[in-house]
Amino acid sequence: MSKHLKLDIVSDISCPWCIIGYQALNQAIAKLTPEITVDITWQPFELNPHMPKEGQEITEHITEKYGISVEQSNQNREMIKQRGLELGYKFGNRGGGRIFNTFDAHRLLHWAKEYDKQTELKLALFDLYFQQNGNPSDHQALLSVIDKVGLNIEIAQKILASNEYEQDVRDLQSHYQSAGISSVPAVIINDKHLISGGQPADFFEKALREIAEEN
User: Fold this and answer.
1) pLDDT tens-digit series, residues 19-42
2) 102, 12 Cβ separation under 8 angstroms
């Protein structure tokens, strides 16, 4: 009989380590299936909650936020690209790109859970930002992704034009911040075990196996 694990992944769409971490986690899950099955819920986290709609040039943002040089920023970006390729994810050219506000995207992700489309939408939003150099705060860009994953565009339009799910998302963010989550990705297993950062696939595999055996 297979063992089932509940996974909450706290993450942001504009976090490259979040897609890297998911790729590694997904590889681990594939190796463990059907021995271990999982139920994934994506939880909201905004890396830049006060970012205006127009966003900020990405190198400028990174050097200001983390106090590093342009050269260090470029080196980090290259390392991220290589790590992505190792896991089967190709980052687009982020040079000259921008960092954007992601709150509306999180509202749509919260809604998508009702239709069991959260992971599909999350991955499409990662692609929008990291592969297509798209703007996840632009409503038309978001609606194009909604259409791509087969969700109802008219409902999504109404959500974006209103404050629907706004409080839900803010409450969830507050919950995880008060629980000590200050960086992402953060994978919480069975509401008890925390794995932080974009860990390698074998790390996730070992951890999931041990937690399943414990249960």
Assistant:
1) 999 999 999 999 999 999 999 999
2) yes
* Mean pLDDT within 170-189: 97
What is the rounded distance in angstroms from the CA atom of residue 152 to the CA atom of residue 158? 10
- Residues of the domain holding 83: 3-214
Most confident of the following: 53-62, 91-100, 173-182: 173-182
Of 48, 53, 45, 16, the residue nearest 139 (C-alpha): 53
Q: What is the CATH number of the domain that holds 192?
A: 3.40.30.10
Number of domains in the chain: 1
Distances (CA, A) of 153 to 86, 118, 146, 150: 35, 15, 6, 9
pTM above 0.85, yes or no: yes
Q: What percent of the chain lies above the pLDDT cut of 90?
A: 93
Which residue do the tokens 């390729």 mark? 85
